[in-house]
Specification:
It contains 19 helices and 31 strands. With 755 residues, it is α+β, with helices and mostly antiparallel strands. It has a 15-stranded antiparallel sheet that branches. Strands 18-28-29-30 form a four-stranded antiparallel sheet. It has a three-stranded antiparallel sheet with strand order 21-22-25. β8 (108-114) and β9 (120-139) form a beta hairpin. 54% of the residues are buried.
Length: 755
Amino acid sequence: MSSHVKIADENRQSHVGIDMYNPLWRTQSTGSDESMPCGGGDIGLNVWTENDDILFYITRSGSFDENNTLLKLGRVRLRLTPNPFTEHNFRQELRLKEGNIEISGGSTKIRVWVDVFNPIIHLEIASPEKIETEVFYENWRHKDRIVRKGEGNQNSYKWALPAGLHTKSDLVEPEKGAVTFYHKNNDPTIFDVTVAQQGLDSVKTLLYNPLRNLISGGKLWGDNLQYNHSGTDVYADTDFRYWAFRSKRPASTHRIYVALHNQQEETVADWMKGLNNISARAYSPSARLETERWWKQFWERSYIIVDRKKKESASWKIGRNYQLFRYMLGCNAYGCYPTKFNGGLFTFDPSAVDSAQAFTPDYRKWGGGTFTAQNQRLVYFPMLKSGDYDMMFAQFDFYLRLLKNAELRSQIYWGHEGACFTEQMENFGLPNPSEYGWKRPSYFDRGIEYNAWLEYQWDTVLEFCLMILETNAYNDSNITRYIPFIESCLTFFDEHYTLLAMQRGAKSRDENGHLILYPGTACETYKMAYNAASTVSALHVVLEKLIALENHPVDKERWKKMQSRIPPLTTRVVNGKEMIAPAKLWERINNVESPQLYPVFPWRRYGIGKEDLELAINTYKYDPDMIRFRSHVGWKQDNIFAACLGLTEEAKRLTLLKMADGPFRFPAFWGPGFDWAPDHNWGGSGMIGLQEMLVQTADEKIFLFPSWSKEWDVCFRLHLPENTIVEAELVDGKLHKMNVLPSSREKDVINMLKN
């Protein structure tokens, strides 16, 4: 961000009124599905109060076991004596501005918060009278647990469980005043199984392996606690063992800490040294102030507030739920892994999502260490306009770590250069083994997933190339270290489709000198596609932006030559209306996505202020498949398309559906949709659509309120390319205030509601 914008940020008014969105509960919960999210840095807690006990689940980014389940690191239960809660004095509030949860009963207050800069959870208890505490660390992996039928969806085996597969037990060691807990991965892991399955043993030692010797865990202790006893019990659907601590003496204040540590270490002793170093940071007197300052700046960076004066109306809830979901994303701002689309850090007991899946709290559908690009992109695209660039590097670095593995796939399978990233990919860069196919015909190409949905789907990585390039356009980010990644992804398409053409015939190009992008796929929907709209748009845009990049080491002449080889988009006429075709040709329809409008979003070839807008509008209104597939659920992005095309009433209708309260007590716990709950695709696509309704750009022009309903008052602060920030307030259908940073860009603003 340029220096003058930083100064403007520092001199802003102290706050925008985010407190109005604080969820406040006056009654206790009945289970973990009625929990509040709390977190920071890379830690997420589900916090709830049940039968006068305060409980929370702990999830930390990167806590993967041997089977690639994203493990919760346990559950903590706090009990106070005398019990401060009565029927009428209970209060639990998520305080967004400070990033913590405060629970109170009368004058007794319990604050739960997570240090943004150190992986430490804090519980602070204060009472005017001396009280006693009991703290229980609860763990359901106190023994090896057989992975049951259906439960494999939480790991990389999915539906193809090997006989006798177990989730291995944790080691829990109580001491006089603390308990240490950890899970250590032992060989073999799913990495070893996948490498052998996919014929890569010859390069195994060259492959990045994040699972080997990974130890995930932590330590719980308090300033007035002593170990008391251990026992067993059952919560929800799962038995567990607990380790109980009691106060040494009654006191009016109590502090309890949980320090977490994930590291690949040969020995537990080395891991313990790291944990002890982290634990020592719990006593920093400035930690809470620094964390609260981070959250304050987070909220001032960006916001959308809708119909402030119509509290609890449907339109007000759109703004509230936007802010709540952005908070959930902020809890993994600095994770070593991206926020997972299928629940992020905030999954809860699965039977509350689906009664047929009464598994342990570790369960989530669609895997723990498996990352689905089509889904992940919707979690990260909204961070551009919200200005949360620092939160995007977890996703970018994820791909960068896997670059060598993806390049080795191309070299081993096809003998050419370039990185081949598949759609459902493990955290070590190879296709999910069950999606790759355990029962593959011997003749089938080893580099391709033997899977009707995922075969030939490798263009989704280009959306992350776009995001990287856009962080430079928005924020002048130095993206030099990512250039080899972007270039390798482009190289794959150039070399692979040249190879495929030469395997079919004597010519490597079509009659116009273009690459023949066949076989391909337009999302998971239009299969065995020829020149899929999603792929063609992706290659055009990434090449165009890479070539335009300044002050970075790019071989522009090379990429201009490739750019000349990319075919044009295909159009078609249906019932007399010309529209964008999903591809030039395809064999079958396999899913319910709408790639014919990916040229609108994310690729922005069409939109407000751009040529041939009617062609894209026709596609939205009249394409029979788009009409058939239209929905607001989950990862559906019809709300985004409508907003980008200026279809105000349609964008309004879909946004009211998309951003309405979810089915759980916390309003931004949506889902399960097509995936799991909380559904982060649902929230991410809702955020994007709302942003696009408020402001869009084309060339140097800034379009204000391009698809915003005059009926809704709104104030917002959003980020745009060229280090631009727009703040605006609409009242009674008229622009009340506007501030553009830098001010030189105010001349580029076109108010679409002016007339």
